[in-house]
Write a structure and sequence with these properties.
about 150 residues; Jelly Rolls; RmlC-like_jellyroll
């Protein structure tokens, strides 16, 4: 699976009160942190897209990472990092290793990771030989306290 081949379908309700397909497009991708990212949706609706959603918002992305020995070891997913969101991740294809400070776990297609609490250091690696594609929803609290 390659995220460049994926489509985003958005439905809504038309003026006559009937459901309809409002949008059906191939996803657009950007290079970010050594991975390929497809921004899918952000709330509040209409907010400019950012990897980290605004306070009280959600951000939904697809992310594709290369195996570590194929140049995928550069950037944020492969370095320990923290965040201000709770992340909900589903592995769609390939395999990845989630590293935390006190261990690691290998995950594959269909596996789901709920990464919490806010600010817990973690990183990803891809053992290969195939890329890993994951869908990730990030939820930002209404108020971030320091």
């Amino acid at each position: 699976m390659r995220i460049e081949d994926c489509h985003l379908v958005i439905t809504d309700v038309g003026p006559e009160g009937r459901s309809r397909v409002a949008r059906h497009d191939r996803v657009s991708t950007v290079a970010a942190h050594g991975a390929t990212v497809a921004p899918l949706w952000i709330t509040p609706e209409g907010a400019p897209f950012a990897e980290i959603p605004p306070p009280g918002g959600l951000s939904w992305i697809l992310m594709e990472m290369k195996p570590d020995n194929a140049g995928g070891g550069e950037g944020l997913p492969n370095q320990f990092h923290t965040g201000t969101t709770t992340n909900y991740t589903v592995i769609l294809s390939g395999r990845a290793i989630l590293h935390v400070q006190e261990g690691e776990v290998e995950v594959g297609p269909g596996d789901t990771v709920v990464h919490r609490p806010l600010g817990a250091p973690h990183r990803w690696s891809v053992p290969g030989p195939h890329n890993c594609v994951m869908a990730c929803m990030m939820s930002s609290p209404a108020e971030i306290r320091s």
